[in-house]
Amino acid sequence: MNSDKKSLWKKTRKLFNDIHLWLGIGAGLILFVVCLTGTIYTFYHEIEETLHADIYKVDVPLGASTLPLNELITQVESSVKEGKATAISIPADLQETYTVSVQKEGERRGTSYLINPYTGAVMGNSKTASSEFFMIVFRLHRWLMLDTEIGRPIVGWATVIFTLLTITGLVIWIPQKVKSWKQGLKIKWSANWKRINHDLHNALGFYAAFILLIMSLTGLYWSFDWYRDGLYATFGVERPQRGPKGDDKNKEEKIIQISTLKLEDYLNVANTELNYAGDTRISLPSDDKPTISIAKSKVGFFAVSGRDELTLDKMTGEVKKKELFADEPLNHKIMHSIRSIHTGEIFGTFSKIIYFISCLIATSLPVTGTIIWINKLKKKSQRKVKKRGFKENRKDVAFAE
After folding, report:
1. What is the pLDDT of residues 23-44, one digit of tens each?
2. Within-domain flag for 308
3. CA distance 37 to 135
4. pLDDT recorded at residue 176
5. How are strands ordered across the β-sheet holding 122-125?
6. Residues near 77 by beta carbon (within 8 Å), at least 6 away in sequence
7. Domain of 334?
8. What is the CATH number for 79?
9. Which stretches make up the PepSY domain (predicted)?
10. Where are the alpha helices (DSSP H) in 52-98?
11. Which of 23, 71, 282, 69 is nearest to 169 (CA)?
12. What's the pLDDT tens digit per position in 344-384?
């Protein structure tokens, strides 16, 4: 590398180093909170089910079979009162409770009740003490426990800064000489604590950089409408509309349709069409809706999080629509999986472990980065003191002469 190129590279690195430093100082505390809460929330479901195994797990009686689904739903509705079941989830694991979602009038979101499928006993609901804690963690992660109109953009712009920090960090990390790459990829544990801290920031940041970019770029989906619209436009996917379509007032009176089929009949169709072990969710339709929706997803250590969906005729059980995740174009797969890509659920437990480690590293980066900055300030201060002392000594010598 000639002197001109070296000079240009030095200036470029200094520019990116300055950007990296001041952005990190400005958003460090917010990023620490966001990354820490993201780390804690990664295994929320697993922690919840472990802490409350008494409501999430059941003993399977020898030779026993599960009760009819309609009976289980009736059991939950009668115990809850003033609520209507909207869906029932059937896990692949025979030792897990079924989940019945119940919504009361005026509620925006319903409550999930856990029921023993062998006895019909309602074990409890998903609103536990630990779920309240994780809800606080979630609110901190999404909007810092502030009003959403204030907290969401703050977290959003901090995420934009995090993206820039990751990119500038990669540029700073790239060594000038090829032989220095190996040094940048490892941590010298035998060195002093300052060097170890420096290596932890550089090496771990490099290893986690790709996952951190995915986290930040997908996280912005929930922060800004313009970003969400831009993603759908970029991938060429129509953004789903919320709420009822059209004006119901101008529609003809709906026809009440009472089906004689049982939920097991629909479930049998779903298991035939989607012939694999997985978690199944049946959305219970209103009496005036002619179809019933069933979603099924695979389970396992490397299971892809995408769901297969069926729409069945409520009166006959005939398949009206079948949507397989594997058959979707790549752009649709990405946009339909944006949440699982962000949380690490995209490839089951395997990817969640990788995300957990990466998020833990992300939490450490503001800490190790701040320590590096403080050490540099101290070093600069010491140099100034030495330089001042040297000048004063020179003056004394000149005066003596």
Report:
1. 999 999 999 999 999 999 999 9
2. yes
3. 11
4. 59
5. 122-125, 111-115, 98-104, 83-90, 278-283, 291-298, 307-313, 319-323
6. 83, 84, 85, 102
7. 257-352
8. 3.10.450
9. 67-123
10. 53-56, 69-80
11. 23
12. 999 999 999 999 999 999 999 999 999 999 988 888 777 76
